[in-house]
Amino acid sequence: MSGPNTHTLIPPQLILASASPRRFELLARIGVRPDGIVPADIDETPHKDELPKPHALRLAIEKAQAIAPENKGAFILSADTVVGVGRRILPKTEDLATARYCLEILSGRAHRVFTGVCLMAPDGQQMSRVVETRLKMKRLSTGELDMYLDSAEWDGKAGGYGIQGLAGAFISHISGSYSNVVGLPVYETRNMLIGSGFLNG
């Protein structure tokens, strides 16, 4: 007589293709903890005449595809957030001059934040979408601009600001997903995880 079956089905892992602590925290809010973090190293330079929305989607897909070969059998979640003013894509700010440039453009103007999200299943099936949030930033005084630049909160942020920090006080209007502006639209991401079978609805 054989003993009890000790074999258990090991659920697939979830790999987050981003080193962003903000995305990790946003996933935690919907009860998801990635099994691994594998930042995708891709060229994020916009293509000629590429618009903000397709740019965000393309980068999200390319990030997932970049790490898929080394993470077979896992779900891969990737995202990219882009700030757009009209047809213009604002850069991720890595220095003070670029941060000032972005904030001077955004000051007193409406803009949009697009986050492309891609989920690749272990069988290679791919789901992707772009979520858009519309915002308006108040006209910044010289003091407000200098204060924010001195804070260094702009470092590495798309468009030179993070809404979850000091710059939240500069946003006079927002229409759409707040978490999308932080870096990951949690409602849509959760639905993708459910649709793929990773999460139970």
Describe this structure in words.
It is a single chain. The protein is of the alpha/beta class and 201 residues long. The chain has one domain (14-195): Alpha-Beta Complex (Maf protein). The protein contains six helices and seven strands; from the N terminus they run βαβαββαββαβαα. Strands 1, 2, 3, 4, 5, 6 and 7 form a seven-stranded mixed β-sheet that branches. Helix 1 (21-29) links the parallel strand 1 and strand 2 (36-37). It is elongated. It starts with 13 loop residues before the first strand and ends in a 6-residue tail after the last helix. Mean pLDDT is 93; it is low at 1-7.
Radius of gyration equals: 19 Å
Strand content: 15-25%
CATH class: Alpha Beta
Sheet/helix structural class: alpha/beta
Helix content: 25-40%
Described by the principal axes of the CA atoms, the overall outline is elongated
Write down the CATH topology.
Maf protein
Instruction: Give the helices and strands as they follow along the chain.
Output: EHEHEEHEEHEHH
CATH architecture label name = Alpha-Beta Complex
Number of helices: 6
Largest sheet: 7 strands, mixed
The tally of structural domains comes to 1
Give the beta-strand count: 7
Q: Average pLDDT across residues?
A: 93
In summary, what is this structure?
Helix content is 30%, strand content 23%.
What attributes characterize this protein structure?
alpha/beta, Maf protein, 7-stranded mixed sheet
